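User: These chains co-purify. Model them together.
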Amino acid sequence: MYPKPIPPSHRTSRILYMTGVWAVLAIWLLPVAAIIMTSFRTFDDIMAGNYWGWPTKFNILENYAAIFQHTDMLVYFRNSLIITIPSVVLVLALSTMTGFVLSRHKFVGSTLLFAAFIAGNFMPYQVFMIPVRDLMVSLGLYDTYGALILFHVSFQLGFATLFMRNFIAALPGELFQAARAEGASPMQILRIIVVPLVRPALAALAILLFTFIWNDYFWAIVLTQTDAVKPVTAGLANLRGEWVSAWNVISAATLFVAIPPVLMFFLMQKHFVSGLTMGAVKG
Amino acid sequence: MTTPRQKMLERWTPALLLAPGLILFFGVIVFSAFRTFWISLHEWDGFGTAVYVGLANYRELWTDPQFWMSLKNNAIWLVVFLLAPPLGLAIALLVNQKIAGMRFAKSLFFMPLVLSLVTVGVIFSWFYDPTFGILAKIFGLFGAEAPALLSSERYVTFAVVFAGLWPQVAFCLVLFLAGLNNLDSEIIGAGRVDNARGWQMLRHVVLPQLKQVSFIAIAISMIGALRSFDIISVMTSGGPFGSSSVLAYQMYEESLFSYRYGYGAAIATVLFAIMLIFIVWYLANLLKNENGA
Amino acid sequence: MAHFTLTRRSFLATTAAASVSLSMPAIAQSRELVMISNRGNPGQRAALEKIAADFGQSAGVKVSVNNMDHEAHKTAIRNYLVASPPDICFWFSGERMRGFVERGLFADISDLVDREGWKKVVPSMSAVTVGGKQYGLPTSGTLWGLFYRQDTFDEHGLTPPETFEDLLTFGEKSKAKGLTPITIGTKNMWPASGLFDHFNLRINGLEFHQALMEGKVSYTDARVVKVMNTWAEAVNAGLFTQNATSYAWEQAAAALVQKRAGMMDLGLFIKQAFPKDELDQVRFQLFPTVDPSIGRFEDFSVDSIHIPSGAPHPEVAREFLAYFYQPDNLKAYIEPEGNVPARTDVDLTSDPLVAMATDALKQVDGTSQYYDRDTSPDVAQAGLKGFQEFMVHPDRVDRILPQIERARERAYGAL
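Assistant: Joint model of the three components:
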């Protein structure tokens, strides 16, 4: 492990180290603190420009309750889960497959294909608006979960393939040679060698994909229009008005909406264990 | 013993594995990219009839002062965003310890990435507000007047990039955390035996193993720098008068506010062409590296 | 592969074309109404939902109201009107409506308007009329002008300026008292273009303003230059907020509320910036005259409600409009927002700000909507940006006007 772990016996160093981490974190999270404070303020306070001072009145319950009173947040929340989870799973599966082939099988045009995946990544996605909308309309998917899932899976495949290909390419080549020498099929290699070894990568990728898809708002407004399918970001935006936005309620909603990705990160960390060391011992 | 049928199947496995991803990616993304280029050759408001104008949009772009301003700002974004990978690595190294509470601390470091960019943008613009902002309050303590950064044609881009950098660092942090956990402990152990320490250890033993991740982090930061637009939209609307606009925002503005889809598509195509330089550079480096190793 | 679930709506949309034979009767019988609302005010949203629910109950219709935020809706409407229109939607009247009408995206409801005799009670019906036909119903409008606090004025012995000269004196006086004469935040650009409207309407009148908005006059015309010169005089006299581009209207309004500024040029929604118990101090004044020979012309932005021409249930939609437009319902809908009702038989003057605006409207000889609602989006964007720059650098006028003119020429053709 790097950096060198501080052994559990050094209690003082561990406490000191953690104190240091929290100190850095305090600075790092200043803007989050501001969002939390804003979510406690009254509307009048914000209109009066009291962004950084002590709130004249704490409006905690009202603000957080307003999220659910003013929008169908729970419906949107459910929709977001319905859209995000299958998308993430599909991208993980497909990109492991494409990444594996592109890193371990040389064929004519493989570099070009890989380049295409990277290139798709680099496009500013807003320009796809009209073509993608038209495509979804002609597929009969416009204003359905399917439209968002299909788009997110296709679009995130670019980044995910780049990511997985590089991680798989970084695995020691001897493992693959040994497996082939023993007559393992590509499918077996993928299942038995690659997947366990790239677990940390898959965990990291899952976190990132979940965050990106969960946070998407642009495609939500381009591809959906009924509340029954719109994701949580639309609910967040619903709190904004033509002239006036209640930033206190929006801040509260922002924190609420951020819970699933943070939770996801927290839970996924246990998969951040080195798959390589376990495999290398056996191999 | 493998039967001929199995052999056949094995030969085709890579193709079968590749197929679903390829179909989706080419069917949706690459197809749309080509249509975008096609649109860029037209004068189109997004839903009327499109008029073919050849390269007129590109010619107009060349003489559009806003285009050059956006391009310059993109360069600033690019340079500042390259700070994200080292900063992300630094935090990753800091938190890559197994101490009680660290998992929770890590999750908090990750937080900037998950917050709605609109809210982040609003908070940062409150930070800079010349009357109510915290910056103004700090300057006020010393009896000075804070600079109105978001009104300054010269500094506004830096003020916005700073806000955009925050989530980007969290992004790189996740990448490096995954990378650090994929290190080969034998090599690290060997390095320790050789008495490599601190900077040397990082430079000569750890970083080479993080090459792949670093590549991704750099590429993603570049993409992020070139693609960013929402935080600009919230903090300045590209202003004052276009001086904080970038190509992605200008494209958004032209297509969605001015309803000039053809022109917006032309900006996108140019942006893509610029990115192509990075893609080629990136691929060349990547392949050279792999073949070398 | 993923199994894509179709929602009921898209199912209807996609099958509608193909299912003329089989499923048609079933669909025709189930009375349904789909609405897309862009209303942001929570009170107004609740009122709309109640009206919709009441209508649904009395007419035996299944009503669904879908909410969108105002900004996103501007993008979304261009998608959904083409891809899968609802039965009812909200939009702006004037030029922005005309764009959709010209493409046949909004339904003609003239017969409904005639049948209900609405023209007699709705003076702003012209705002939804194209070629003599009505394509929507005005709901309410906001009148733009100068707001101030009576207590601030009393404290400093200020009086509301009637003429441009008064305005300049007012500026000197307020500055001497340490006030920002006119607080403005141009971060979101539109407040600056409101000033352009005021000056142009005061100097060149409504007819010229409309011609300019419709692209029939060049932005480099001497009459436009004259407007800019007068405006520059006001800017150079230090009438407006320093670093205005750093502020949205909310922060600028805070200066007015906190008695650090004299006046603010805004619509009725300014009341949101005031604590409730200070609203009784708020006063309204039309923008000062510049050329006394020109009538009182003002920006009065009208919001409206429409039936898309592709609406799946147009008959139900018409029923709903008739219900919605009943004075009581319209009143319940407008009240939370506090705008001037489109119907003269809806009385909202219990709201003091609406009362002031309604009163002021009586002196008004004619109205336009607002800069970015009156002209083509392309020109509007160039203008918004140009005017924002102008208020910081009035000396750049020689570069700014030709720039807007280029957009005008692109949108409307060479003159």
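Residues 10 and 108 of chain C are 25 Å apart (CA to CA).
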